[in-house]
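Translate structure to sequence.
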């Protein structure tokens, strides 16, 4: 079997993100999870943590409308 090559992660620049993505990172920072997301990626979070972020993103989007 062939070995899969790991994808090289490019650094995340918060200023270059789309507004929808920026909200996710802002909320992750407020919850104290941003360092882990930047270091290990979104997959490092538990389902509970990502669900919390998703719920807060939804709430913020509704408030903005």
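Result:
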């Amino acid at each position: 079997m062939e070995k899969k090559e790991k994808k090289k992660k490019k650094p995340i620049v918060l200023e270059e993100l789309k507004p929808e993505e920026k909200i996710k990172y802002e909320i992750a920072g407020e919850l104290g999870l941003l360092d882990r997301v930047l270091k290990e990626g979104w997959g490092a979070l538990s389902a509970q943590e990502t669900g919390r972020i998703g719920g807060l993103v939804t709430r913020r989007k509704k408030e903005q409308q």
